[in-house]
UniProtKB/TrEMBL annotation:
InterPro entries: Aromatic_Lyase, Fumarase/histidase_N, HutH, L-Aspartase-like, Phe/His_NH3-lyase_AS. This is Histidine ammonia-lyase. The keyword Lyase applies. It comes from Staphylococcus canis. Belongs to the PAL/histidase family. Keywords: Cytoplasm, Histidine metabolism, Lyase. It comes from the Bacteria. CDD domains: PAL-HAL. The gene is hutH. PANTHER family: HISTIDINE AMMONIA-LYASE. It holds the Pfam family Lyase_aromatic. One of its GO terms (molecular function) is histidine ammonia-lyase activity. The modification 2,3-didehydroalanine (Ser) is found at S143.
């Protein structure tokens, strides 16, 4: 089974299946014809010696410099080489792979003027899983993700580094090994490859895929904590949430009720106490709000995944050809969405840390031992796991500061407002990793707490989760190096995001 790309209606769910099932990509015939038609327009511009940005002129401040026709192709090669100024650690392989898929999908809309050879080279790289090494730092998020996408383009022309079968190699050597020639860039093609938002969008898509799954995973973890603390189920009654009008809140309440059904550890109002603390009672309101953020982000990312976002754009309408310089490469809509995602994710960790604090605090956890220690005093138990969670939550508060409120002029003030959307995307994934570890800590502590309460009394679905995760992390019978437990649970939670 392959992922059919048309330039339209690509979804995050399809990207997730593409990754989890290791699919190939293919191109619809209609999309291929659109590519040919837009390329024919570029060829006419060259033949007629028209002045069009990025085809017959220089770039940025050099947009008024006319280029000799004999140097049109060299102009594109120079563009890629000079703009490959990325720094720092490379993007994850999944991000780089999705970056190629999204760039290909954009080109298939037929507004970019590239050759079918370029399109086919991208298909080859994707299907052979030749992953460009793309440094994460260096993009302003307008004029698109110039530096990251230049490193992607370098690989296509045989000049960059790639990951192939787990090894970092020269792209040219891999292409030679596979009898695939390096791409020879034609007029407009270098610009068409790098003027766009695919770095921030690809990282955003990967963050979203893992964040959405983690948000669902957080509910059974919270349900374990709820039972360990003999939480009250009345607060999840549908009537309470129906009158609030937020669908996501109502859905979280329903799922929490499902997780807790038939538990012998939960209570009703007045049995032990009249009301639970907010971190138990308000799970639907808090988690539901994060799902609202996820829904918003999903919509904006899918808009951008199917957008023509390079410059200039080519239109053939009503027997008239238009080549228009615009600013669809500006990442502001994506930057705002990814900054919002950072906030929604951070709150899942904020509330998780407060829940796990209740589990370890002897003044709040009922009859459970302090820090769930097997020998209080001699052994510290989960004491420092709560410290670690608090540290990550605090770090997230810094990372959640919106990147999009900043701008700095570039290209001699020609590009005088930029989005910083790629910084937002990178910080968003750092926050996600922190959230996953905080929830892993809550899971470890909650598993231990319900074990002390009595696993047989758990609701059937959470008992299944207990048994599943006990294969990942053992019971706490004595102090040990808990950092490995945290990492093991976090890796397992990440793996679940790509499970079918």
């Amino acid at each position: 089974m392959s992922l059919m790309l048309t330039g339209e209606q690509l979804t995050i769910a399809e990207i997730r299946r593409f990754l989890s099932e290791n699919q190939h990509v293919s191109i619809s015939e209609e999309a291929r014809q659109r590519v040919k038609q837009s390329r024919a327009t570029v060829e006419r511009i060259i033949e007629n010696k028209e002045t069009v940005y990025g085809i017959t002129t220089g770039f940025g401040l050099f947009s008024d410099v006319r280029i000799d026709p004999e140097q049109y192709n060299q102009l594109q090669m120079n563009l890629i080489r000079s703009h490959a100024c990325g720094m720092g650690q490379p993007f994850d392989n999944r991000v780089a792979l999705v970056m190629m898929v999204l760039r290909l999908n954009t080109l298939l809309k037929g507004h970019s003027g590239v050759t079918t050879a370029l399109v086919d080279q991208l298909v080859f790289f994707i299907n052979a899983r030749i992953i460009p090494v793309i440094p994460q730092q260096g993009s302003l998020g307008a004029s698109g993700d110039l530096a990251p996408l230049s490193h992607l383009a370098l690989a296509l022309i045989g000049e960059g580094q790639v990951i192939y079968h787990g090894e970092q190699l020269d792209s040219r050597d891999v292409l030679k090994q596979l009898n695939q020639p390096p791409l020879q860039l034609q007029a407009k093609e270098g610009l068409a490859l790098i003027n766009g938002t695919q770095a921030m969008t690809a990282q955003g898509v990967i963050t979203y895929i893992e964040a959405e799954d983690l948000a669902y995973q957080s509910e059974w973890i919270a349900a374990l904590t709820h039972q360990a603390l003999n939480g009250i189920t009345d607060a999840y009654h549908e009537a309470v949430h129906r009158v609030r009008n937020f669908d996501e809140q109502t859905e979280v309440a329903r799922r929490m009720s499902d997780w807790l059904e038939d538990s012998k550890l939960t209570t009703r109002q007045g049995e032990i106490r009249v009301q639970d603390p907010y971190t138990l009672r308000c799970i639907p309101q808090i988690h539901g709000a994060s799902f609202q953020v996820l829904n918003y982000v999903c919509e904006k990312l899918e808009f951008e995944m199917n957008a023509a976002n390079d410059n200039p754009l080519i239109f053939d309408e009503d027997d008239e050809t238009l080549v228009i310089s615009g600013g669809n490469f500006h990442g502001q809509p994506v930057a705002f969405a990814l900054d919002f995602l950072k906030i929604g994710l951070s709150e899942l960790a904020n509330v998780s840390e407060r829940r796990l604090e209740r589990l370890v605090n002897p003044q709040l956890n009922g009859d459970l031992p302090a820090f769930l220690s097997p020998e209080p005093g001699l052994q510290s138990g989960a004491m420092i796991m709560q410290y670690a969670a608090a540290s990550l939550v605090s770090e997230n508060k810094t990372l959640a500061h919106p990147a999009s409120v900043d701008s700095i002029p570039s290209s001699a003030n020609q590009e005088d407002h930029v989005s910083m959307g790629t910084i937002a995307s990178r910080h968003g994934y750092q926050i996600l990793e922190n959230v996953r570890r905080v929830l892993s800590i809550e899971a470890i502590i909650a598993l231990q707490a319900v074990e002390l309460k009595g696993v047989a009394q758990l609701s059937p679905p959470t008992k299944d989760k207990y048994e599943e995760f006990r294969k990942v992390v053992p019971s706490i019978t004595e102090d040990r190096q808990f950092h490995q437990d945290i990492e093991n649970v976090a890796k397992y939670l990440q793996k679940l995001a790509y499970s079918n």
